[in-house]
Amino acid sequence: MFKNYLKILLRNIKRHKGYSFINIAGLSVGMACCILILLWVQDELSYDNFHSNGDRICRVIRQEHYSGKPQKKGARVTAPLGPALKAEYSEIVEYVRMGRPSRRLFQYQDKAVYERNLCLADSSLLKMFTFPLVKGDPETALSDPYAMIISDEVALKYFGNEDPIGKTLTVQQSFDVVITGVMKTIPRNSHLKFDFLGSFELFEKEFGWGVGWGNINYTTYLQIADGASFEQVEAKIHRYLDKHQGEGAVSLFLQPLKDIYLRSDFNYDFTGSGGFRSTYVTIFSMIAFFVLAIACINFMNLSTARSGKRAKEVGIRKVVGADKVQLIKQFLGESIVTAILALALALLIVEVLLPAFNQLSGKQISLLSPLESNPSIRFINDNTTHRCYCRKLSLVASLILSTGKGVERNMWIRGEALWFQKRTRCSSVFAFHNTDYRHFDGLQPTELYTKYESGL
């Protein structure tokens, strides 16, 4: 029965080419627009989701009052605040202070470069936040004031293939730091971005920054205990600075980590986005919904307008014994198959438009971005699982490669299948052909087919 329904659907598509094109193309364009917008929305919402303690980390926000009038909130506080809060409140289990000096000259042998992405922080940063080290011990990497952790990209830039651990970098031609760790490059969906991580003690020892109650130069993050809430802790510390800076002069607030990128509009904020990006997320989500709704309404209207022309077919089916349920299954099945075809075309449109969309939005989004950034399914990045996943993808292409007779008839299809396999970018992408995908970089589908036929 299903085979008969599918055959009728394909015949109708072939017989009414113009209607079918308008119906499928209209729905696929609407789906493509919705998918592109939702990919952007998902990327915005994914910021800082990779931290294992993210639900218990917050940032301290400061608000001053002049003549009884509250001023705009600021994201910087004094250096002694973090240790004092941890010592006084049991709900606060850890803190980290950090600051961002201006660009500094780093030198190794004859290579000297001005670097901007320098951050100095307490050693507890590696405990609170999930910034794994490729080399070095996170427990002791920042125990020395002149120790420094660098990203793997910086390690490659300065030291090439040499082991950077124990090597020395000269800063501002005035003091040396020793490389004690190499961390993975920080994910793009992090509001904290740095390539050099040094000890907080360097602010006082080498940079001349004050670390007293009167120096408001640092950002402080707190990690609260399990079972405590940000509201409870905020209520306790709200007037904590009254005893240091006068009653009612300064108020303290807490901002959850996952709100920093989306909902930050504070003075002296070197880590946030500088605006309420959550508003744009809401607006674009609504736009995606309306675009998809309009496409679906258009699809239903075209299907309804054409239903009258199929009255004879319905009548004949009833005469030969078809009941109401069978007719519903037929027309509902046709709509589902048509929607699946439109979705496949929409995914192709999205894949084609993604480079231009990324350039316009300043993102690095792919169709697999929701999988890669979701902590609950982060296993997709595991090499073994990723290879198994790609083998399943390559099965589809391999089946296409093994079908059909004659080179002329199947050259384009088989070349496209090889191109698809190459695009999966896995070490064992040709699971059924034992082929290295790197031989196919830069080749067009017909050229790929020629390589495949020649036995490469």
Set down the secondary structure blueprint.
Blueprint: H1 2-15, H2 17-45, E1 57-66, E2 69-70, E3 77-78, H3 81-88, E4 92-99, E5 104-108, E6 111-115, E7 118-121, H4 125-128, E8 133-135, E9 147-151, H5 152-159, E10 168-171, E11 175-183, E12 196-199, H6 202-205, E13 216-224, H7 230-237, H8 242-245, E14 250-256, E15 263-264, E16 275-276, H9 277-307, H10 311-319, H11 324-361, H12 369-373, H13 383-401, H14 407-423, H15 445-453
Parallel strand pairs: 7-12, 9-11
Antiparallel strand pairs: 1-2, 1-13, 1-14, 3-13, 4-7, 4-13, 5-6, 5-10, 8-11, 9-12, 10-11, 15-16
Characterize this entry briefly.
The protein has helices at 2-15, 17-45, 81-88, 125-128, 152-159, 202-205, 230-237, 242-245, 277-307, 311-319, 324-361, 369-373, 383-401, 407-423, 445-453; strands at residues 57-66, 69-70, 77-78, 92-99, 104-108, 111-115, 118-121, 133-135, 147-151, 168-171, 175-183, 196-199, 216-224, 250-256, 263-264, 275-276.
